[in-house]
């Protein structure tokens, strides 16, 4: 049976900027009903949802929920009223050697980048089962498959979410539900873009050199992935062509993990 995405509800955590926003826009383009989320509750968040909805002619709403709080993760899914596609994307970063890594930063990264996905998935699976179809897409990272120094919590959380993805896939294997992780390398988000001038200054390089030699050092293509490419990959994972793809990782990293 073929499934159209039109009218299906997608919840994307951490989607008022960056990759989450790109994924949400791709779903809206596919005429899905999209739930945007972050921990803020600003007029700008609700305006953003309205604007995307108007641009693509579909319903887009914003629900505030802090992904560091288990009960708010579960409430987000309940409040959405339906959840055919769940994208666990919310994430933060902190960089320090292990011995200097603030324990509260460790806890926050584990809570937002990993535990939130456990709570939203637990709330979403019964809805997917009831609807007879579902997709769980976890935004992991090249750091879900490899490591870098000074990113202990991030690397641990991203390896953890790859593990959670596999378990989710096995527990749903006999149902029309799949669970996969997208592992981006460096993606050109506003946050990454804003680091280019400073990096160029720090290393006394042009911005192009800073991009290629410092920021994209580990990305053999020497190109950033785009939020549209991550969105397109998520839409593909929702398609019928991807119905037998489950419990795996899809790298969108310009060759990073092939090194
Ligand atoms: P971003 O900072 O632009 O987006 C992060 C999103 O998470 C924002 O919408 C933010 O509001 C939200 N968020 C943060 N804390 C939250 C909380 N407590 N509750 C709810 N929402 C919260 O960063 P991004 O680069 O778009 O990152 C998105 C995801 O992609 C993260 O999981 C990140 O680890 C992953 N990722 C990013 C890259 C990259 O190069 N940008 C590479 C690999 C993986």
Please tell me about this protein's structure.
- The protein has 259 residues and is α/β, with parallel strands linked by helices.
- It folds into 2 domains: 2-187 and 225-250, NAD(P)-binding Rossmann-like Domain (Rossmann fold, 3-Layer(aba) Sandwich), CATH 3.40.50; 190-224, no CATH class.
- Helices cover 47% and strands 14% of the residues.
- It has helices at residues 18-29, 43-56, 70-80, 103-131, 152-171, 190-203, 207-215, 227-238; strands at residues 9-12, 33-38, 60-64, 85-88, 134-139, 177-184, 249-252.
- Strands 3-2-1-4-5-6-7 form a 7-stranded parallel β-sheet, with helices on both faces.
- It is globular and about 55 Å long.
- The structure holds nicotinamide-adenine-dinucleotide.
- The site of nicotinamide-adenine-dinucleotide has 27 residues, from helix 1, helix 4 and helix 6.
